[in-house]
Amino acid sequence: MKTTFLKTALLIFITTMFSCEDNTNTNDSTGKDSFSCYVNGKLYIPSAGTGIGGGDIRPFNWSFDEGSNSYINIQGGGEYTVFINIINPKKGINNLKEELKHSLDYGHTGMIVLNEIIYYNTKDNQNNGTITFTELTNTKAIGTFECTLYNDNGDELKVTNGKFNLSLDSRTN
Q: Structure pTM?
């Protein structure tokens, strides 16, 4: 009896531990206000946090300045913070080629993925990856991205199949 119970409990435990996680990136960049990617093969969709006084904050935000020193930055929260900053962005392919010093570095073109435990970023003068805009205006940013990031030890973090469709509703004002 004990052996049957133990085998059944073990079978349930193993089934639970190895049950399939839905890793399908359903963000096809056709709906507004969507942002997702894979971080080392695991689906990342930003989740909202808790703001001051317990109110929800948006899971991601973006800003775009079309002036002479134009830039766009996109930031998502949750398990990780994913921060992308582009200087002089253009429709089409933009290369992520500079190291960002921190997640508020608006002076360089690059990407960071971090949380309390990890910190990975793009490196200077490397073909780290790209962000491609199919649409870029003051009210909308649609595109894709992928990148290889590095920590201080040289370990790699792959960000793949990144997609976003951002509207004025998700923009930081």
A: 0.74
